[in-house]
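Following the same procedure, sequence and fold were stored together, as reproduced here.

>
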Amino acid sequence: MEDKVLIDYLKQAKKILSDFFPAEATALLPVLFASLIWAVKERAEVRRKILDLKVWLEPGMIENKPDDFILNFYKSRPELLVVYEGEIKKRDLQALRSAFKRLYPVIGLEDPFLQALFAAELENHDYRRLTAEFGSRLEKAISEIRAAENRPGFWKELERLCGGFLELGWALLSEDEVRRKLKQIFSQV
């Protein structure tokens, strides 16, 4: 697909969704990005996937990861190794585990909503800012989604946009190809 066609489609989708969100909403682009990824990845019901975001506010499964898993998470990612070098050398597992709870869903699990929500921090390798703002930004985004879903037609419109995206031929590409292309283009939307 030509970049111009994709950019035009995304701009139109953003304009349509902006009717459901407040001006300067934190959640609008992450909802769009994640919905398109999930539409390609699983052909899943977009509503269910977005509402599952609440899981990250209750990180029980993340808290139970063993120390070695957490250390390996940092050591296997050069950009994290640089940022958290001091904590890793000192084996400050309390600090590493605290940051891990926020970094793992974004970087380890590659959640598309969270990756879009923290796109600037990921691009700039500003992981300390990501961890500092994780809770407040995620809560704000979920609050915006709750408000949007109370407006008539939100889910129907989002699902229509995902269907239109798939009709443009994106269903034929792998999830990785779609992610890469959308990340490249989203800055122009």
The chain has a mean pLDDT of 85. The two ends are 16 Å apart (CA to CA).
